[in-house]
Amino acid sequence: MKIAPSILSADFANLERDVVMVEEAGADYIHIDVMDGQFVPNITLGPNIVAALRPVTKLPLDVHLMIVEPERYIEDFAKAGADFIVIHAESTNHLHRGVQQIKSLGVKAGVVINPGTPVCAIEPVLSMVDMVLIMTVNPGFGGQSFIPETLEKVKEIAELKKTKGYVYEIEVDGGVTDETIKSCAEAGADVFVAGSYVYASDDPAGQIQKLKDALK
Ligand code: DX5
Ligand code: ZN
């Protein structure tokens, strides 16, 4: 069970401090949300920020690309030091090629689907990927409410993993709190992204501990 704090809700003027803080608090991955103002209605950050964060933490950098035609930037994010590059099925006509490209650069590949997209959209690449991310909110912003219906897809992905012998991790992203995390784990998720729950608190370390306690 891994906790991946999303720096989307961190203090962008103090990113190093906020990354080190969650690493010391026992976070497992650093989740980095890249948005282009087109695939989602918000703009965040690019490969230069990933490169700047690479030397400040030993934790794997889990880069979630919410951008149109992510294949245009996969190489830049790989060079910047991403450990995982996760691309949306809805953002490209060439999901398979995108996954191949990520892997050819020696980076772990992930695929992600929005709440309105069915699992069958990523089924043809499941044997190739290291990570499957099921969005539990519509991407674009932190602090939204968890959409419980998405858990059916987490279950489906967990079942396919079992029956077909796939090896991917199953990640959920959006609205994860000490209350919703349990149902995600029961559905089969093993990596939990949490943005506002961790960072919009005076005690991010305590919040990470609460998430871990909820999983016991
Ligand atoms: C949403 C992003 C999430 C976001 C989650 O588009 O992909 O990673 O940071 O934020 P919370 O945990 O606040 O829902
Ligand atoms: Zn994300």
Report on the structure:
The protein has 216 residues and is of the alpha/beta class. The mean pLDDT is 98. It has an 8-stranded parallel beta sheet with strand order 1-8-7-6-5-4-3-2. It has 8 helices and 8 strands. It has a single domain, classed as Aldolase class I (TIM Barrel, Alpha-Beta Barrel), CATH 3.20.20. 32% of the residues lie in helices and 19% in strands. Helix 2 (47-53) packs parallel to helix 3 (74-80). The relative contact order is 0.17. Strand 2, helix 2 and strand 3 (61-66) form a beta-alpha-beta unit. The chain binds D-xylitol-5-phosphate and zinc ion (ZN). Zinc ion is lined by residues 6, 31, 33, 64, 173, 193. A divalent metal cation binds at residues 31, 33, 64, 173. This is Ribulose-phosphate 3-epimerase. Its EC number is 5.1.3.1.
List keywords for this structure.
216 residues, alpha/beta, TIM Barrel, 8-stranded parallel β-sheet, 32% helix, globular, binds D-xylitol-5-phosphate, binds zinc ion
Q: CATH homologous superfamily - what is it?
A: Aldolase class I
Instruction: Estimate the mean pLDDT confidence.
Output: 98
Individual helix count: 8
Low-pLDDT segments, ≥5 res: none
- Element-by-element helix/strand order: EHEHEHEHEEHEHEHH
N→C terminal distance: 10 Å
With strands numbered from the N-terminus, the spatial order across the biggest sheet is 1-8-7-6-5-4-3-2
Domain module count: 1
Write the CATH architecture name: Alpha-Beta Barrel
The helix fraction, in percent, is 25-40%
| Form type | globular
Radius of gyration: 16 Å
